[in-house]
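Lecture 7 notes: from sequence to structure.
We start with the chain below.
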Amino acid sequence: MKPTKKTVKAIKEIEKKVASVCNTNDGVVDEITGMVYPKKTIEVTRNDDGVIVNKETGEPHFPKSRQIEVKLSFGTSAPSLKHQLEEQGFTLSKGFLKDAENIRIDLFGLNQAGILSSKQLWKCFNKLSKVISKMVVNSQIKDGEISRHIETRRS
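Predicted structure tokens for the same chain:
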């Protein structure tokens, strides 16, 4: 449907009102209407250390990311999951760790009974490792941070 002259005129009037309210000193000119709109981009520069910072505030433009690495061993001779996590400086609730340890023992039992193959056993351990790692990351996360799983390695 083609816009009428009345509609186009109304749109231009609204654009003029918006432009008069917005700060147009540092604006961008719209090529079609010729109206000036405020910038939507943030000007950045590099500081002396090579970090990209906001020109106005001087704060880093990209927040620093940090990685949390959790190493777990599920072998029969491996220490308890609680002990492994404590060695790495992580603490989780006793109930959760007790349940995870019971699952670990049960998986070995299912493997010994022939119910789970070795391949299925490792898949279960990978899944258990992801759940434990997620709990560790959630316990370490700070305000404004988001978590993202990168990889699970099998040892």
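Points to note: The CA atoms of residues 74 and 125 lie 7 Å apart. The chain has two domains: 5-54, 65-155.
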